[in-house]
Amino acid sequence: MKMPDISLLEWQERYGTERACAKELAKVRWPDGFQCPTCGFTKACYITTRKLYQCSKCRHQVSVTADTLFHATKLPLVKWFWAIYLAASDKGGISALRVSKHLDVSWGTARNMLRKIRKAMAHRDSIYRLGNIIEFDDAYVGGKRAGKRGRGAEGKTPVLIAVETRKKGAGFVAMKAVDTVSKKTVRQFLSRHLNPGQTIRTDAFPALNAANETQQHEKKITPPEKAFEWLPLVHIMIGNMKKFINGTFHGVSSNYLQEYLDEFCYRFNRRFWEPELPLRLLNACLAHVPIRLAEFD
User: Is the pTM of this model over 0.90?
Assistant: First the structure.
């Protein structure tokens, strides 16, 4: 869906007040007008002192943020909207420390805001499936210290990466951090991100042979110096992803790696619509279901 471009000043003018933010959220939540989540009635009165809608039929009270990304938040919606803008508009991503300074919130609060926003990014990308010819490989990310490169590297987290090939370069990309590169994790990844019957290219690593079960699998033994010839796009994605993580977040532990991968993929998959990203991300967040902090434990 085409979204309009928006500048920082336009964002401030449009979403600079609590009322404007709540109105935007209500529009996404109830596009045809208020609807009671309990009885479905379409009329309500607004209790200004409590910021709640009360159904005119069953008297059920509900806030505009209930059962949304902002469920039970104690922060002003204006700060949430600005966090979304900052996360979307900075091409290299933004750290929790910078968000905390911009919005005058604690580092922990900024961290949780960004985690929820990245969850919405992942949810939006999860509805797509890769097609065309797909390059598929694994990489290893992180680690407390430098050491062995590639498979078997101590302290590093394996990541599965798939990227579409198109005439003018890469299409959409998908990445998943896994405990180990095995036929089981490969099957799960392919089931989640690809439709059956796609042409998929890999090196000859045995675990990747799981692609034979549902895809048109093309494999070739590729020594490191030949990797860019057989799988050029996926290795470019690996390099760009590592630069993104190291440049913005200066490394990452396995506990947080997936959310950074989700942000990288979301941003890369919309790289041609960069001026639209703030409104695209806002729409993804407003339409997203609640995210409990327990999901991150």
Answer: no
